Amino acid sequence: MQLYDQLTFNRQIFLRHRMRTFLLLLAVAIGVASVILLTSLGEGARRYIDREFSALGNRLLVVLPGRKETTGGAPPIYGSVPRDLTLEDANALARISGVLAMAPIIAGTTSVARGSRSREVITLGTTDAFFRVRKMDVGSGARLTARSQTEALAICVLGITLKRELFGSERALGEWVRVGDRRMRVVGVLEERGESLGLDMRDLLLIPVRTAEQLFDSPGLFRVIMDIAPSADSARIEQKILDTIGHRHDGDQDVTVVSQDAMLAAFNNILTAVTLAITAISSISLLVAGILIMNISLISVSQRRSEIGLLKAIGANSKQIKQLFVGESLMLI
Amino acid sequence: MIKLESINKTYLVGESPLRALRDVSLSISAGEYLSIMGPSGSGKSTLLNMIGLLDRPDSGRYWFDQVATETLNEEQRAQMRGENIGFIFQSFHLINRLTAFENVELPLMLARQPIKQRRKKVAEVLAMVGLTPRAGHKPNQLSGGQLQRVAIARAIVMRPRLLLADEPTGNLDSHSGREVIDVLEKLNNDGITLIMVTHDQQLGDRAKRHIRMIDGGVDSDSRHHPEALEDADAAL
Fold first, then answer.
1. From the list A1, A15, A315, which residue is nearest B78 (CB)?
2. Residue of B87, B104, B15, B79 lying closest to B50 (CA atoms)
3. What is the pLDDT of residues A85-133, one digit of tens each?
4. pTM to 2 decimals?
């Protein structure tokens, strides 16, 4: 039998059983669509996380007080540590070669008030380097000044939501707000930006790190974020950090260094697993479609037994008959 | 042309075996017109299937054109069937989705003949059975007699030398049956060997040789005498 004949023969079968053909094609289409849809969903999530991280800057190292044998994931917010990671430690780390910028962070919550309006917000004590390592900027006004590294200036930068809550549409720059028991001048308002690494950048107060030290009455840093040179070897810098801290802490290397690569790798692993799981689930629907075709073929064969008998009687060999029926299934796919 | 020797065939009907053919020996020479008669379940159709190479005997030997068919594999049997044997069934067995023309074309298609040649041959046989004007109709637009004539056209389009008809008029009124028989006898006059299974005594009597089957065995054969067998052997 020639190919043309086979195609004609099978086409007539499909035309004759339009509904059956349509339903089968639908089943296959749904199966394939679900596989594609769900895998791209997983892949999309992975890309999204990738992008989130790259928005932070490509080479980021986070130093946390206390030793933790984990990589990636979210570290505890307020851990209690035997020995604080101090500002002096941080300044020592900033001198390691390959570190482009170092932002120490002291975190806490304070109430910010203006007149009768008051709001409890997360307050970060940091320096001008913070803007650099987190790749962010103020929408209006100025950043924290370089002097905020060494002096307890009474200035602050507001997140955009916080500014709206306290000032509404009024001008905030140059105004005074009460932070805890101190008065501080608003020097800038952060640009509009969403959440980043679990921190809502819109509802936030930034103050100089020395001011925060006094405000929270603690020399302990919440963490240190460092931007490292693209050409630098991050493993070497990590080791340098541990050495430096060990030197300053009487031999105890009691900090944890988390590199962005490690966080990214962890997320990637999780998301790859999720993608695989989703793919497996959607493969089931494809399998179901396949079984459906098998079933229909079976029905088709048993319904057309007499036709097969006839074809054999008029000289078809079993190879040709197989060819016809397998061809029918193939044409459906 | 055909020689059967002690053919046996047993089917399992449920649990119990049914001997459909017991020790059937038969020889048929080219150009014969043969009717096989007998009550239901006497093995007539089984014998026909055996002769038509659709079924294999459990034991016994079968020569078709001096070829021992037991040694052939399924492919070779299919080829032999396609080239030498035409089948006509009681219920026509036309494929409903195909037109009369396409139904007749089917054996040629399976034999991989080129399309042009196929068209010519199909037109010829349709003219022979008088159905040229109906070539484009589908089976549900044709009458019983016409359907059977389409089936005959399909059976002879490969120019077989043996035509096997299983109750060809069983589903037809007497007028249509008459038409069909006329066509078949005309083919026999042209030299084709015709073997017909029938219930109809009148029809069976028209054949030149009569075989009567009972309980899977040949009960009587109008030419079953030694000379005839020798003649047949000589013809082989």
1. A315
2. B87
3. 888 888 888 888 888 888 899 888 899 998 888 889 999 898 888 888 8
4. 0.59
